[in-house]
Amino acid sequence: MYILGMESSCDETSAAVVEMGEGVRAIRSNVIASQIETHRLYGGVVPEIASRAHIEAISRITYQALEEAGITLADLGGVAVTAFPGLIGALLVGVNFAKSLAFSRGLPLVAVNHIHGHVAAAYLAHPTLKPPFLALVVSGGHTCFYRVDSETDFVEIGGTRDDAAGEAFDKIGRVIGLPYPGGSAIDRLAYEGDPHAIALPSPALGGDTLDLSFSGIKTAALNYLNGKAQRGEEIVRADVAASYTHRIVEALVKKTELALAQSGMKTLVLAGGVAANSHLRTALEALCQKTGTALAMPPLSLCGDNGAMVAAAGYFEILRGNFAGTALNASANDDGTCTSINSTGLNQPDIIATW
Fold first, then answer.
1. What confidence score (pLDDT) does residue 342 get?
2. pLDDT under 70 in the chain at which residues?
3. Which residues sit opposite 20 in a β-bridge?
4. Strand ranges (DSSP E) for 304-353?
5. Which of 34, 79, 89, 241 is the most exposed place for a label (fewest CB within 10 A)?
6. Where along the chain do its domains lie?
7. From CA 167, how far away is CA 62, in angstroms rounded?
């Protein structure tokens, strides 16, 4: 079955064709229109600009994805679209386009949870992967542990109580003058510094909880940087990147080890934009080797937002008959519910730092 997947939850417009079936999990095309250069001027994603860019790109990349896959609309078995969570204006572009396309061609339409999509990227990279397993989703907007009971059944068992790890990386990267996206720049710079040069608090909360908090380490890093600047002292950016990365990765690994022990799972899936962080990937590989846990990580090309992961997740929604109707709407929330919006039309900050 060929599934068209559409993603527009933040600053990347993507359309992909994935072939899914018994013994088949293959990406036939995965077209991504990135907005990084557009938002680099602002140091983060500007929601209104992102929404307009999605409108300009979505039709073009959809037909490009079909052409690269060597199929037509008549060959599709369904259309999957990210409906939540994300920037509401950006999501609406993808949802409305997907609805129009699906119903004009009489194709099944399914709504996909963006987080489920990130996890589904692992199915494409690891064809034999099956639930149940533990999933750690780390991105610019989310840092959560999930017990994945089936391809469509997720139970959140822990996560951040405030900011996400990706947002924390981007914020400090921007403050020390690294180019957007700051998270990937910090990843590279951290290899040049001393991970123990600066004392920073751990984002891992104490006790048996699986929760984390990244607001404290962000504040501590900002205070360190401001203090250095006020005293006219040199700021060694590599040491900041290394120390900051070390504490965040250390906290994520600590809570992952606890989550594995509490859940009894023998397989770990790492997903999300921050799954591309080389320090985190290396540390989790070491943890899984120590604990005898199978580790499934998508390649770097599938860590960021993309249509292929949405198509893969959509396939399992189709199998379970979770079809969407013409009333399908987008939502900024994880549970797909709508909330009130502010005067800008978005229940997000004016600039969103993502990775």
1. 28
2. 335-355
3. 25
4. none
5. 34
6. 2-121+303-319, 131-298
7. 29
Q: Which amino acid is at 346?
A: L
**The pLDDT value given to residue 59:** 97
DSSP structure class, residue 151:
T
Would 2-121+303-319 and 131-298 be classified into the same CATH topology? yes
pLDDT for res 34:
86
Q: Which of 163, 183, 154 is nearest to 36 (CA)?
A: 183
Determine the topology of domain 131-298 in CATH. Answer: Nucleotidyltransferase; domain 5 (3.30.420)
Give pLDDT, residue 188: 96
Instruction: Provide the token pair at 168.
Output: 């924390």
Between strands 12-21 and 24-34, the pairing is antiparallel
pLDDT value for 340: 28
DSSP 235: P
φ/ψ of 173, rounded to 5, equals -60, -40
Instruction: Report yes or no: 65 and 205 within 8 Å, Cβ to Cβ.
Output: no
Domain 2-121+303-319 has CATH 3.30.420.40: yes
| Whole-number pLDDT of residue 241 | 98
Residue 306 near residue 30 (C-beta atoms within 8 A): yes
